[in-house]
Amino acid sequence: MQTYIVLLGPPGVGKGTQAEIIAKSTGLPHISSGDLFRENIKNATNLGKLAQSFMNKGELVPDDVTIGMIRDRLSRPDCRAGALLDGFPRTTVQAEALEKLLAEFGGTVNYVPYIAASEATLVERLSGRWTCKSQGHIFHEKYNPPKTPGVCDLDGSDLYQRDDDKAETVTRRIQVYFAQTAPLIAYYRERGLLSEIDGAQPIEQVSLELLAVLGK
Ligand SMILES: [Zn+2]
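# zinc ion complex -> structure
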């Protein structure tokens, strides 16, 4: 029997770090849909070329293309015992498509850990970054502040905030995430698969609780 895990969590909650920890502890490969896209495009696979053609037109890549990449990936020998999926599904339609796909392998989604955090916590974590103008050194208002605000400790250059690191941009990004994933969270909750974990806790505690959910 395979184990398939769908890991959910908003930007800034440390999902990537936790995915690596789970992969190590369970021995299951970490399949990030973003990495899978980049890999298929880089290797110019048929699916990669197809995905690229939609992206070039500024269109969303259709679900069947993404599902095709995941099918390919899950067919590899390292996925014999299952996999940890990160970044897919994002919608209930994709969740249903994933169920059909896993059935092809004789499996199903077994666990859906959701690392949760409030909008305020996520905005604080993601928006305090300041970047050095000359060499790109990075500081954080709260977690790694420069000795003098606005000045790089290493070379004395001015620090600035990238658009992506500004509170307004980050807030919008997080609100979009919550709006888009609410139906998916409800979908997995209704099926009794969702386990919510408090992502505002220290990394080690989040890992412990995640592994407990997975029975490790
Ligand atoms: Zn600097």
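# post-check
The longest helix spans residues 167-190.
The chain is about 45% helix and 15% strand.
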